[in-house]
């Protein structure tokens, strides 16, 4: 599923962790904010990216300790 229910009335985007009180709003958000094929996921924070280059640039924002804690 493209969404996780944070609580009975909150829906969390699995790409950026923004939350919405209606499932329809989550779907609208994903259609607008994440139009591309967001198929590459950061193993530290679970954010999505369009390609490996974007992920590599993002990965540098995490500390060495955060990166070391990833499952491989």
From TrEMBL:
InterPro entries: Znf_C2H2_sf (IPR036236), Znf_C2H2_type (IPR013087). It comes from the Eukaryota. PROSITE patterns: ZINC_FINGER_C2H2_1 (PS00028), ZINC_FINGER_C2H2_2 (PS50157). One of its GO terms (molecular function) is zinc ion binding. It holds the Pfam family zf-C2H2. Keywords: Metal-binding, Zinc, Zinc-finger. Residues 11-39, 40-67 form the C2H2-type domain. This is Zinc finger protein. It comes from Pararge aegeria.
